[in-house]
Amino acid sequence: MTGILINIPILNEVDNIRALTERVQKQVAGKNYTLLYVDDGSTDGTLEIIGELQGQDPKIQVLHRTKTRAGCQRGGALFDGMVWGLENTTHDIFVEMDGDLSHLPEELPIGIALMRRPDVDFVIGSKYLATSATREREFWRQIMSKVMNFTVRIMMQKEISDYSNGYRFYSRDVAKSIAARKIRYTSPIYLSEVLAIVLTDNFQIAEYSSTYLGRIQGSSKVKLADIVEGGMALLDISYRYHIGRFALAGGAADAPLTAG
Ligand SMILES: Nc1nc2c(ncn2[C@@H]2O[C@H](COP(=O)(O)OP(=O)(O)OP(=O)(O)O)[C@@H](O)[C@H]2O)c(=O)[nH]1
Ligand SMILES: [Mg+2]
Questions:
Q1: Structure pTM?
Q2: Is 188 in the pocket of ligand 1 (CB under 6 A)?
Q3: Which atom of ligand 1 lies nearest, measured to the CA of 73?
Q4: Residue 98 CB less than 6 A away from ligand 1
Q5: Which residues pair with 60 in a beta bridge?
Q6: Structural contact between residues 178 and 86, judged by C-beta atoms closer than 8 angstroms
Q7: For a tag site, which of 105, 130, 209, 249 has the least CB within 10 Å?
Q8: Could you give the CA distance from residue 228 to residue 15 in angstroms, rounded to a whole number?
């Protein structure tokens, strides 16, 4: 049976979690799905609200992690959520989105419909196509995101318009391929590292014009150190992309990606 895993990293999202859950549920009502929240120790009441929502919908699951590093660990949370989905579900579509309502749940049907096409393995909700929109985001965050994205496009593949948006859809085969890799980054730059792997594996990528809404409730978890690490990491990721090597987990360092 086909099904959808919606994998959402969260940390202290008490003012967003109820509306997010209800809006996601509305979009996938009647479908076989699991709504997985990956939490790194929220202390603001987020977990209590999720507990209440779980009483009404058994499709809601929580993966509890213990934060071992400072800074935004959304990458590590996404990776663990994806592995959980592989181990605990048979779903064929994996979705990732933010827990602060920056990604509109109303776009879920667009990404899911694209994933149902036989020629698509990976879908990006892009902030940077002609009809994409960004609203309510601080000017300096928009500029920084654009500069970093432009740099990655030059360093990797210009055909991809958005390397950093966390609104993504992918097949179970893509999930298996990412899970098999030794991932270096657990911070937000994880998103670009994963995309480099997907490109190297020659999966078919589609993008659609997404609307990104800057965070209205709660506070950002991104620290200056995450941004500095991101800049350095881009050099490393694009180097590994060009030599076509991403280490296999448990394998020798930098084992060739394509076996044989
Ligand atoms: N589990 C977990 N989730 C996190 C962590 N850091 C951030 N998140 C979640 O990841 C998503 C994205 O984080 P944000 O802080 O919104 O990062 P951002 O969207 O790049 O930055 P803003 O523009 O400030 O919103 C949100 O749902 C956060 O709650 C973390 O360390 N662990
Ligand atoms: Mg955000």
A1: 0.93
A2: yes
A3: 31
A4: yes
A5: 35
A6: no
A7: 130
A8: 29
**Structural domains of the chain, with CATH:** 4-243 (3.90.550.10)
* Residue 78 phi, psi dihedral angles, 5° rounding: -65, -40
User: How many DSSP H helices and E strands does the chain contain?
Assistant: 8, 9
Q: Which residues contact 18 (CB under 8 A, 6 or more apart)?
A: 49, 53
Q: Which residue among 62, 72, 148 is best mutated to probe the pocket of ligand 1, counting the most ligand atoms within 8 A of its Cβ? A: 72
Along the 260 residues of the chain, how does pLDDT read in single tens digits? 689 999 999 999 999 999 999 999 999 999 999 999 999 999 999 999 999 999 999 999 999 999 888 889 999 999 999 999 999 999 999 999 999 999 999 999 999 999 999 999 999 999 999 999 999 888 888 888 888 899 999 999 899 999 999 999 999 999 999 999 999 999 999 999 999 999 999 999 999 999 999 988 877 777 788 888 888 899 999 999 998 789 888 754 443 433 22
Tell how strand 33-39 and strand 4-10 pair up. Answer: parallel
- Please tell me the distance between residue 220's alpha carbon and the centre of ligand 2 in angstroms: 6
> Which one of 37, 64, 97, 100 would you pick to mutate in the ligand 1 pocket, going by the greatest count of ligand atoms within 8 A of its CB?
100
Q: CB of 72 closer than 6 A to ligand 1?
A: yes
Residue 76 CB less than 6 A away from ligand 1 = no
